[in-house]
Amino acid sequence: MSNFPTPAMHLKQEYESQKQFFELQPAILQRFLESQAAQIATGLLDSTRRVRFSLPDRVVIPSRQVGQPVTMTIPEAQRNEQVSVWLQRSVRETLLHRLNELEQSSDQAISGCAALLRFATAVHLVSSILPDGRSVSYRADSDEAIPSIPVEDRLPESAITQAGDAIVETGAAESGRGELQTPFVPDARRFFLPQWVAFDLSGKLLVGSEKDAEAHVQSMQRYVQVLHRASSLAPYMVACDEYQRKRYGILGQLINQGRALANFKTAEIIREIEERAEKGTLNRGLSISMPYFDDQNLVMDEVRFEVIPAGRIMFVPAFVVRASRGEQAKVNQDTRLSTSTRKHVLAQLKALEAAFLS
């Protein structure tokens, strides 16, 4: 076995080092850094044009030469920072560039402050901006890389509804009564964030509309984006236990619910084709945009193919079967898709084919 440290070990060591460096600062400095980190995080996430933040007036630096930490001061003229962009440029890139410049400064105090701000901002993104979720366990479907099927929780239901188990009604409460809580359905409580579960494990829609389901998927995608911004800012954050727990919880839920949304949309396409066939309105051509969830890029995408060319051709269900089988052959050869996404797309196409087999 090799004794050389692995990349994961390097990241873990760096994370622990930065955490200890932050905890070395007095409490008042920690709070100041956290307030500035919140402003930097806004610039990393929002489409703002200007971000202002400040370095503290002092910083505690570990010193091997002295044998104990040394407090260094930062002149007032060097504390205030402002990053601005114009036109279509992203403030995020400019902000990251400025943080890199500060961290590479020859002034040890400024360099240390920049490192502390980077750590505090990454922690803020993961711990403060992202809601916490339930303790969950997923299993993978056959040989899939990312587990996305929730494992049944065999623990008995609590008689007391916890905050993560229900939606709290915020309207006017009746006199003498507490807040009204509407418990999530059991299937939703098997996921990391039940409030964003739109489909149960059988694919049944739990929310009011397809648009609501899309909004839930978009919320989960934004959650993943925040995690990505944190690890882009400070790669060592992947060694943080909270980061890994939240990443595991949201990825499994997003992939599960994204596929369920795609299945639901495909069922709606089948229903619409059947209705239009009965009305005889498909005799001028038919093209299908069949949705699927790409588990590599974590986005909804579409497979587009022609069933009947434009013109006066009478619709026959066999046309859908033939077009679906032809598209299955193409998908089988599409190396741009992950193995699990390809499997998901093929299942969609086979469902379409089966619906029109005579």
Structure overview:
- With 358 residues, the protein is α+β, with helices and mostly antiparallel strands.
- It has three domains: 123 residues, no CATH class; 117 residues, no CATH class; 95 residues, no CATH class.
- 47% of the residues lie in helices and 14% in strands.
- The protein is built from eight helices and ten strands.
- Strands 1-4 form a two-stranded antiparallel sheet.
- The longest helix has 39 residues.
Brief descriptors of the model:
358 residues; alpha+beta; 3 domains; two-stranded antiparallel sheet; two-stranded antiparallel ribbon; 8 helices
Count of helical stretches: 8
> β content, as a range?
5-15%
Distance between the termini: 60 Å
- SSE sequence, one letter per element: HHEEEEHHEEEEHHEEHH
Shape: elongated
Unreliable spans are 166-182
Radius of gyration: 26 Å
Give the helix/strand class.
alpha+beta
- For the record, the count of structural domains works out to 3
Largest sheet: 2 strands, antiparallel
Helix content: 40-55%
In short:
This protein has 358 residues and is an alpha+beta fold. The protein is built from eight helices and ten strands.
Outline the fold blueprint.
Blueprint: H1 7-24, H2 27-45, E1 50-54, E2 58-61, E3 70-73, E4 80-84, H3 91-103, H4 108-129, E5 138-139, E6 149-150, E7 166-169, E8 180-183, H5 210-233, H6 241-279, E9 286-294, E10 299-308, H7 317-332, H8 339-355
Antiparallel strand pairs: 1-4, 2-3, 5-6, 7-8, 9-10
